[in-house]
Fold this sequence. Notes:
- By secondary structure, this protein is α+β, with helices and mostly antiparallel strands.
- The chain has a single domain (about 5-20, about 60-270), classed as outer membrane lipoprotein receptor (LolB), chain A (Clam), CATH 2.50.20.
- About 20% of the residues lie in helices and about 40% in strands.
- The protein has six helices and 13 strands.
- Strand 1 (about 90-100) and strand 2 form a beta hairpin.
- The chain is globular and about 65 Å long.
- It starts with a helix and ends in a 17-residue tail after the last strand.
- The model is unreliable at about 1-55 (pLDDT under 50).
Amino acid sequence: MSLRMIMTVLLAAVATGTMVACPGETPAPVANQDPPKETESGAGETAADDGAAKKDPAAEDTPEARGRALLTKVVEACGGETLEAVTALSWKAVQSQVVAQTGGKVDSNVHGRVSFPKSMRQDVSNQTGSASHCLHGEKGWSESRGQVQGWDAQRVASWRQSLGLSTLPLLIDHKSLQVKEVEGLEQADGTYRGISVTRPGMGEVTFYINPKTFRVHRRKNNIVTGVGTIVSREEKLWDYRKVDGVWLPFSRTIEQDGRTTAIISVSEYKLNEKFVADLFDMPKAKTP
């Protein structure tokens, strides 16, 4: 395979969102609720004319209520308050990119860093060279061999969607999402329960959850690629390990339109790492 073809594969992979994405727009505000009225004793009990109010079980047996309850269990199983406090993530991985034309693989080392909710950088290297790709707020850029190129609006939008709809930021922002239970998925080890989660203004993702561990093992959604096409994306996540109180998947397989496009093996995660101030800033092109 020629050097030009390999570098084209790497850039195309980033454009379609198949690089190692972690997990955004500002979440929709949660509707305000009136606090319970206090009784004269000040105990904070809900006032009722005929004693304690009784809940109607049928009123809570809805797809939305079941989905919300299940998502809450997922967040608790993955780290609870420790998970919700995550503001930054870095990881190192080996990514095997599957070349559509030949079926061969290109192995690359990837160092990813994310500052939630709007900045993500990935440094990719293999035997042919290296490249960096970065989303920073409303802008993005790529650098390779000293040449720096800014992104167009379509590619920025693609990376923002990829970041905002990634599993970890969705779990961190779970209280602001729209959620409902959907049909489950039959697996060798049982039926995985399904929930649809929607980040307002960005898109929808379906999680399939192991009912024994309450961890997400599959996820599906449609994505807009860097060139504006829409593809169906499925991700399989396994080999969960605990990192600083948060359970994270160390192995992932990504499929697009039913075809395996990448296999990712993570060697290291770091939570809430302090990044250098200019990590996500566009560098200046190097003069020859």
